[in-house]
Amino acid sequence: MEKAPTDNAESTASSFVFKRRAAVSGDLRRFLKRQMRLRLQRLLRSNQLRLSLYWAGTVLGMIWAAPLTLFGLLLGLPVALFRGHLQLVRGHTIALLARGPIADWILNRHPFGPMNAMAIGHVVIAERQGLSSRVLVHELAHVRQASRWGPVFPFAYLASSFWAFMRGRDAYWHNRFEIAARKAEKHF
Q1: Is 4 helix (H, G, I), strand (E, B) or coil?
Q2: Torsion from C-alpha of 126, 71, 76, 63, nearest 10 degrees
């Protein structure tokens, strides 16, 4: 079967219409993409979304660090029962601060030497007199680390100390978690 010859003008006209429709649909597509991008940017900048993401991250971090926090609460309970007090600290993260004579006793007899404070999960045990804002910021950095690392955090901390020691450095001062906490202090 033989094809009938098509008129060149008709072919050109339909080609023009097709190109015009493609251009309009391309313009519409670009317009819709731009509108979606602008709405997404507004949504990402909204305080409501930021607050929702902050609380979701905080709750998930607390759940992930729950085994450590439970151990911290077991140490903090005697502190609170024997003339100590508990205080909720809210900053970049939430922590329970325990201070009292038992806390002083625990921190002075710590296996790694006397300390002003220590964080275990979302619990910070601190001396009654030795807690400065800078020390609290340092300990809250450890609370955030516990939220990220969860139950693996003590092992990662010890591994970092061991790695520093094996390289001939101080196991505390060159521990990557301590370095990060000291950097957090400087931003205070």
Answers
A1: coil
A2: 90
**What per-residue string of b and e applies to 83-111 under the rule 16 or more CB within 10 Å gives b?**
ebeeeeeeeebbbbbbbbebbbebbeeee
139, 117 contact by CB (below 8 A):
yes
Tell me how crowded residue 116 is: count the other CB atoms within 10 A of its CB.
16
Distance CA 182, CA 188 (A): 10
Tens digit of each residue's pLDDT (9 = 90 or more) over 109-147: 987 788 899 999 999 999 988 788 899 999 999 999 999
137: nearest Cα among 71, 85, 93: 93
Is the separation of the CB atoms in 149 and 158 below 8 Å? Answer: no
At CA 71, angle to CA 184 and CA 146, rounded to 5? 30
Other beta carbons within 10 angstroms of residue 177's beta carbon come to: 17
pLDDT in tens, 92-111: 789 999 999 999 999 999 87
> DSSP letters along 30-78, please?
HHHHHHHHHHHHHHHH-HHHHHHHHHHHHHHHHHHTHHHHHHHHHHHHH
